[in-house]
# Entry
Amino acid sequence: MRIRSWLPAAIAVVTVAGMPAPLAFAEPATPSNSEAPFAVEDGAYPFGPDIKAATGAELIAGDGNITYAPCSAGNYQVVVWARNLLTNESRICFKAANTGYLKVNIPRAYRIETYDRDIKASISIEGSTENLAVPKNTTKAFGDADPAAPKQAVLVEMRVTGSGTPAPQPPADGNPLAFTGKLAIGDTRSCTAALIDPLWVVTAKSCFADKPAENINIPAGAPKNKTVLTLGRANLASTGGHTSDITELVPHADRDLVLARLAAPATGITPVALSTAAPVAGQELTLAGYGRTSTEWAPSKLHSAAYTTGTATAAAFDITAKAPTDAPLCKGDAGAPALRTEKGKPALAAVTSRSWQNGCLGTLATDKSGAYTSRTDDLVGWMQQITSRDLLPRSKWANADLMASGYFTGGSANGTRHMDLVVRWTDGSVSLFQGADHNDPKYPFAAEHKVAAPNSVWRYARALTAGSFAATGTDGLVVRWSDGELTEFAHVDAAGFHDEKTHRPANTVAWQSAKLITAGRYTANPLRDDLLVVWNDGKVSLYADIDTNGVTKESVLSKANTTWPHAEQISAGAFTGKATNDLMVRWSDGETTIYPGVDTAGFHGEIKIRDPKSPWLNAKVLTVGAFVGNKSAQDVLVRWTDGKLSLFPAVDAAGLHTEVKLVG
# Structure
């Protein structure tokens, strides 16, 4: 049985001198592997009929992480007892990883025992399915062990829900193919993918088709089944690397190829380069994947081998293993990148589509081998067009009319967890954008959570700000409503708003004239923020420690005048490196200033960072926060009047240094 080699120390380099001529397409030949089965891991249990003949248990499909193991070997985590089994003691044993799923058909089952694994089992009794939780190191009986009992149970599936022994974290291995990841699609399907952008991977379209053998066309949009990408790990069974849900699919119209968008960017992993060179006859490529080998159903380590290009068309080409001892690509290798070396680094030339799978686990030896790949060299423009697309359309952000930033879903975690953003849209809906755990300013948010539906009560919100009011480690949200009510929500998370407290009741006439509000640590209270208010008539007030004292302890910083009515946006931030916050003001003429050192006595100094008539005249909404890192110089997020969204990282007393365009 031929075994695929493990990851080589370096990717094979294509020889430049004497390189074969590019394949001619004037008289295209049909690639001999174009009719091979699609290399999608469908989860079918390898040699299932043989195991049924030997044990009496039908093992149907799974993800490769719960597998049959002879009880006599002693290396198992799950034991199932059943009357119809052909094994000794009427039991069958299974090895189980830290996660796993297996669909089975074991009639007249009556007991499950677990070792170091939490298991959820599905039991069918007279057509009715019940779920049974079996904690680790316990035994649970079900059904009836009496062969004459009228109600017999059938075990139909098992799922690992927890492990008592966490996998170790291996050291970084310097893997040059860390951009290669595994896609887990639903319970039993899997494929390989390659990262081409922090938010996008490329893989095979057939991975997401219901019946690839019949039709691989799939709709654009969210995948039908939950899909999770894992990449950048030395071992999939360990921790580290990057894991993210897939939220969107963009299929290519006429190739077995699709781009898949990640919910959270893989910013710590370098994407693979995209080659624009056409395939060359006899050229050596490296193929890397997580598919089956001759001995493993679900390998936890990335494996690769050298392949040679064969017959090609304008859209695809054949490949064959270079060394006879290398196995062909197997189930689960659909989407595996075909790589050539360019400028000393791997570059994507094609994506695996089909394979004859001779020598793969679960298949009998045949006289056919080789695989078939979809070319990507002529699709670089298409892929770059998709990956450069806005995360949210500009038209949507044109409807963001209120924003507030804060640590809603967790503290700063020593700077590794960054601020979240609450957005109230013009239709009355509210979104919470959860802060990311990296320092790439292009991707400040990890996920969007809808926390209020359109036409909700939030359409009556007129101003909002976030701050540490309850001294709980996370921030709360203060809202001024159209009727003058002032409300504090002590906790905000992905589920919505919690612990509401009213500081001013509805129809409070005075607070109806509160034009702008912002929370900040002006009075140096280490536990609670203060509230600064700009009124319609130009008066400016500071309310210290609002959670303890409500909004009754008012300090007037500026009486009604002709200056402050021109304040259009205000936000607090740590711009000058002091223990207390500064105040940023964007005026109606576009001038933008910072007031360092605001306290109950008023304003102390002014720093101009944008002149009148500057482009900041078009800054519609702004908020300040530690989006990129927990540092004294904070970041400013701006929504412009045309719907663009910009982030200015590390704004300090010297002004604005860099603009990162997030939308538009």
